[in-house]
Amino acid sequence: MNRRTTAALALTVSAGLALTACSGTKPAPGSGSGAAAGAFDPVQIGKGFKGKGGNVNVLMSADFQTLDPGNSNYVQTANVGQLYYRTLTMAKETAGQPPKVVPDLATDLGKASKDGLTWTYTLKKGLKFENGKPITAKDIKYGVERTYARDVYTQAPQELNSALADDGYKGPYSDGDLKSIDTPDDRTVVFHLKQPFAEFPALVSRSNTAPVPKAKDTKLDYTNHPVSSGPYKIKSYERGRSMKLVRNDAWDPATDPNRTALPDTFTFSLSTAQATISQQLLADSDPNAVTLDSAGGLQASDAAKLNTPEVTKRTAAGLLGCTDVLNLNTETIKDRDVRKAIALAIDRKAIQLQYGGNRFGKIAQSYINPSQRGYVKQHTDLDATGKPKLAEAKKLLDGKKVPKKLVYGYADATARYKNVGTTLQQNLKKLGIELELRPIPAANYYTVLAGDHMPDIARSGWCGGADSGSVRTTVDPNVGPSLDGKTYGFSNIPRYHDPKVSADIYELRGANGSSEELGKKWATLFDRVMQDQPLVPLVRNFTNSVVGSKVRNAQVGYFFGAIDLSIVGVER
């Protein structure tokens, strides 16, 4: 659930817009330079609220890319998914901190064999689907099996699958039973790994392990009504327009200490213009409203209103584990020095302004961040303030065959990403490179990046350590090799594959040790990867999200980048 969706529109800011606090008012969280202590501290609204009932209105500018837990690598789906599906374990959010992995459908975090190759989970008693039928171990297994059918589910998360022993399995529709998972009885699930995996409990918090009843599997149509195992179920869903969730009476709160399930209903508006979302939230015209749109749905013209007292008291905020990067296609930009020159020439400070300036994030020097376990300081030639190093870039290109033209692909629903492209055009022109801006339909963006039409340069985002706080959960998916180690991996957008470094990454997958020890090894390997410059870190995000005056328990999820729906409530 790490890949940041591009479906939601985000804040667009001109380079000349001032985002510091107005004279005479207290600076909003994250405003100013961001260097001062506490500038990126989390802010929660109505913490500790326990009142049940009411409705939460969720305003969104676009529909979910999918609601199928077996076909999702998107944080918006993961956020709303907490309401209607459960997994063996769960990455429980705390504002401003990496999530903590806790038991969910399982009684504990699992029991490993001495050799680390087998993990066993026992399901809690009393678990039921929305139709009242018991959730069994076979339903968990079938949920995992579906994610292997990559010909059907193109965005299925693959980290769990890469750890299991069945490399050649193609899913239940063609290959039948998955041998690496045993279900000796209705409450026991046994995973067989090809190599030890110290943080396996984090892997089974992914949506792969959401139970799916085989009889209800409608393949791609399952997104229209996934069968609920959580506190809410889908009452109605009109794609691109609206959705309503109501209580799932078969859900037993005694089995689920992680979700408060306070509201009676959640109503989703899936086609509200982002300017309207921003205006409604700032004006408090709907006191029960929140948004899942990135950057809190705010518009550039509305940014200064965050500093007004009546809005400040309704603004949840937090520094995310999410970092945006530019991926440099290593299959088309093959020369490492050319990639390094491009990275050095980019004005990342100007790009930060397109994100909203310091109020909405700080310039990143790495894809991994100091909050992740095992982090070690990364070496980089990039300027810490984001300024370009044009002279150094040009020097690297001496005697090199420099491409005359490159293509930057961006999600067409988000003006910010097009504006980033305009900045890149200006930067690369100074290297003699013409940059074409090519829009990609937002709903298909990551599918295109994973396919044959990957552009030369493309932005993406990843929420580091979202599952466990581990460095591995950023490094392996984004620059690691395929399941067999022979080529680049599924989520490896820059298509990075170096014979020596990728082989070392593949070997490290099977290493034993503490999370801290292994994290340092992963961070050190990533440092080696970055000497080849397959990507350019841009901004680590800080989100301000205004909520309605009756909304309580509003916190910005560390990797959701939006209000955490699992604990929110409304005053009645």
UniProtKB/TrEMBL annotation:
Pfam families: SBP_bac_5. The keyword Signal applies. PROSITE patterns: PROKAR_LIPOPROTEIN (PS51257). GO terms for biological process: peptide transport. The keyword Signal applies. Residues 100-467 form the Solute-binding protein family domain. GO terms for molecular function: peptide transmembrane transporter activity. It comes from the Bacteria. InterPro entries: Peptide/Ni-bd, SBP_5, SBP_5_dom. GO terms for cellular component: ATP-binding cassette (ABC) transporter complex; periplasmic space. This is ABC transporter substrate-binding protein. It comes from Streptomyces boluensis.
